Amino acid sequence: ATTGEMLLTMKEGWHVNAHPASMDFLIPVNITLSKDPQSLQVSYPKGHAIETPLGDLMVYSETVSIPVILKEEQKLDSITLTAQACDGSTCYPPSTWKFSLENTAGSAAD
Prior knowledge:
By secondary structure, this protein is mainly beta. It starts with a strand and ends in a 10-residue tail after the last strand. Mean pLDDT is 86; it is low at 104-110. The chain has a four-stranded antiparallel sheet with strand order 5-6-2-9, with no helix packed on it. The chain contains no helices and ten strands. The chain has strands at 2-9, 15-17, 30-33, 40-42, 48-52, 55-61, 63-70, 78-83, 85-86, 95-100.
């Protein structure tokens, strides 16, 4: 297995919904492996509470590290991150980013 992390950094005043989202209609941060979702284990950290007109919501803000484990190394693929960014007054439509995975392991002689 290969371990790593997704490091998310938000500008001051911005946040994304924690995973799981506090309310059904909010979009949580979601990390998936494109071809074989079962091969990726994601350990979403607990968010922190903020007060909003909707009530207290669990969010990630500033910088959050999300540990991931790729269970099967031979299945190099891409990781997809989906998040819904919000500022103090508005939540925007979710965005999706795709990151390529490459085998960068060196030999013992390196």
